[in-house]
Design the sequence.
C-alpha cells in the first residue's frame, strides 16, 4: 500500500481540507487512474503553464530585440541555435568548413545537446516542407534570419524542442515515481514544481535531468550497468551528472561494497565517449569549444562571485582559486558525512548534496540550473514546505535576473544594480536551507520522512522449487544482497 501524501505531508494535509481532508483509512478504491497517471497529468499541466508564460515572446516570433522578453519574463534559449548556429542551413554543428565557420559561431553546448538540436532541425525541415537551403548560402546570415519563412521555421523548431522536452519531463516523473515502491507521490515534488514551469523550456537542461532521474531509478533497482549508461548519457548533455556516479560510489563504499560502483563508472565512460564521438571525430577544435567555455568562466550572472566582484572588487584569479577551494572542501565534507552518519544515507540525499556544489560555488548561474537539483530534492526531502522555501528563492532570482539584464534595475544615478544582489542572496539562502535540512536528516535519521527499511532495492529471482510459486512458474521480489542501499 502506497503512502498517501495527504496523511504524510503537513502542507498537503492542510490543503486537502478544501476537498474534505486527508484520505481516510477506510477510503474506497473504486475506479482510479493510479498515482502514475495523476503524476503524468500534473507534469503536463506544469509544463503547459511554463509554455503559457512564454506566449508573448512566441507571438513575436522569438525575435524581439527590445525589453519585452525581460519585462514579460519569457526569455528562452531554444530559438537561438536555429539561426544563430546555422541549423537553418542544416550546418553540422562541429564542421570545420571555412565558409560555415565564417558565417556562424561555434556551438558552445555539450555534444549530446548539439546532436539533439541537429535532430530537431532535421525534423523541423521535414515538417516545413524540406525547404531548399542552398539559396540561403548566398545571403548574409542576418538577412536569412529576417526572412518570413525562416521565422515560421524557427517557431516550428521551438515547438519540436518543447514536445521533446515535455516527453523527457514525463519520463523523469515516471522514473522518480518508481524509485520508492510505497512512495510514488514523492515524485509530485518534481511534477508540480514551480521551477519546472519557469525553467523547463529555458534551455535543454531537461536532457541530463531525465537521464539522471532514470539513473537513480536503475541504481535502486540493482542495475548498475544501466545506471552508469544513463549517467554517461546525461554527462554528454551536461557535465554535472558525473556527480551522481560519486554519490553511487560513496553510498556503496559506506556499505562496504565499493566495487559495485565500478560497472556503473565503466559503462558511464563508454556511453559518454560514444555520444561525443561524432563531434570529436568530425571537428575536434569545435568540440573543444564547450570545454574551454566551461572551465574558462569567470564571475558572471547569478553567482555569489559576481556580487563579491561588484562589492569588494574580487579579481578573477581570486574567484577561481577560492571557488575551487570551496568545492573541494564541500566534497570532502559530504564524504565525511556519509562515513560518519549513524546509518548509510539514501542515494538521493548524497546526490542532492553533491549537485548543490556547482549551484552554490560555480562561476556563473542560470535559472535553468535549478532543474539539476529538482529530481534529487523531490526524493531527498519529500516535504512541500522545504521544497517551496528553496524554490521561492529560485523564483525571485528568476524575475530579478531578467529585469536586471533588461536594465530595469539599474540605479538612476548609475552603478551596479543592488536589487539584483538581493536575488542572488535569496537564491543561495534557499538552496542552503534545503541543504541544511537534508544534512539534518542524514545526521539525525529520525527526522527523515522516508523509512529506509521499506526502500531497499529488489530484484526478480525464482523462489525455491518446493514453494508454491515455483510450482506455478512465478517469481517474487526479494532483497538483492548486493544492493542494500536505498534511494
Sequence:
Amino acid at each position: 500500500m502506497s503512502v498517501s501524501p495527504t496523511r504524510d505531508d503537513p502542507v498537503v494535509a492542510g490543503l486537502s481540507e478544501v476537498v474534505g481532508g486527508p484520505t481516510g483509512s477506510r477510503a474506497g478504491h473504486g475506479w482510479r487512474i493510479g498515482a502514475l497517471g495523476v503524476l503524468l497529468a500534473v507534469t503536463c499541466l506544469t509544463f503547459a503553464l511554463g509554455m503559457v508564460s512564454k506566449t508573448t515572446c512566441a507571438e513575436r516570433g522569438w525575435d524581439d530585440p527590445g525589453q519585452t522578453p525581460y519585462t514579460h519574463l519569457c526569455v528562452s534559449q531554444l530559438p537561438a541555435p536555429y539561426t544563430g548556429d546555422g541549423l537553418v542551413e542544416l550546418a553540422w554543428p562541429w564542421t570545420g568548413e571555412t565558409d560555415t565557420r565564417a558565417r556562424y559561431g561555434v556551438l558552445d553546448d555539450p555534444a549530446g545537446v548539439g546532436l539533439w538540436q541537429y535532430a530537431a532541425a532535421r525534423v523541423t525541415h521535414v515538417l516545413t516542407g524540406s525547404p531548399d537551403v542552398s539559396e540561403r548560402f548566398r545571403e548574409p546570415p542576418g538577412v536569412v534570419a529576417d526572412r518570413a519563412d525562416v521565422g515560421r521555421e524557427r517557431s516550428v523548431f521551438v515547438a519540436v524542442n518543447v514536445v521533446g522536452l515535455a516527453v523527457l519531463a514525463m519520463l523523469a516523473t515516471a522514473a522518480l515515481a518508481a524509485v520508492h515502491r510505497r512512495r510514488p507521490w514523492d515524485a509530485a515534488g518534481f511534477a508540480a514544481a514551480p521551477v519546472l514551469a519557469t525553467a523547463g523550456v529555458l534551455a535543454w537542461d531537461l536532457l541530463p535531468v531525465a537521464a539522471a532521474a532514470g539513473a537513480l531509478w536503475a541504481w535502486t533497482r540493482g542495475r548498475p550497468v544501466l545506471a552508469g549508461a544513463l549517467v554517461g548519457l546525461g554527462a554528454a548533455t551536461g557535465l554535472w551528472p558525473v556527480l551522481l556516479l560519486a554519490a553511487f560510489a560513496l553510498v556503496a563504499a559506506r556499505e562496504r561494497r565499493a566495487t559495485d560502483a565500478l560497472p556503473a563508472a565503466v559503462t558511464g565512460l563508454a556511453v559518454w565517449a560514444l555520444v561525443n564521438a561524432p563531434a570529436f571525430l568530425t571537428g575536434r577544435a569545435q568540440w573543444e569549444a564547450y570545454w574551454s567555455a566551461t572551465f574558462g568562466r569567470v564571475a558572471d550572472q547569478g553567482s555569489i562571485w559576481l556580487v563579491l566582484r561588484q562589492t569588494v572588487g574580487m579579481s578573477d584569479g581570486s574567484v577561481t582559486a577560492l571557488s575551487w577551494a570551496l568545492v573541494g572542501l564541500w566534497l570532502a565534507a559530504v564524504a565525511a558525512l556519509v562515513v560518519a552518519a549513524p546509518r548509510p544515507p539514501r542515494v538521493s540525499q548524497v546526490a542532492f548534496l553533491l549537485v548543490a556544489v556547482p549551484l552554490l560555488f560555480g562561476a556563473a548561474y542560470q535559472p535553468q540550473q535549478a532543474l539539476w537539483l529538482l529530481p534529487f530534492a523531490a526524493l531527498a526531502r519529500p516535504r512541500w514546505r522545504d521544497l517551496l522555501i528553496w524554490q521561492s528563492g529560485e523564483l525571485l532570482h528568476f524575475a530579478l535576473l531578467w529585469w536586471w539584464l533588461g536594465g530595469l534595475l539599474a540605479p538612476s544615478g548609475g552603478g551596479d544594480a543592488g536589487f539584483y544582489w538581493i536575488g542572488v542572496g535569496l537564491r543561495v539562502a534557499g538552496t542552503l536551507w534545503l541543504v541544511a535540512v537534508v544534512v539534518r536528516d542524514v545526521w539525525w535519521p529520525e527526522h527523515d520522512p522516508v523509512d529506509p527499511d521499506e526502500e531497499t532495492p529488489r530484484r526478480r529471482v525464482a523462489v525455491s522449487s518446493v514453494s508454491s510459486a515455483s510450482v506455478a512458474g512465478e517469481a517474487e521480489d526479494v532483497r538483492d544482497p548486493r544492493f542494500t542501499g536505498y534511494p
Q: What stands out?
A: Residues 297-455 form one domain.
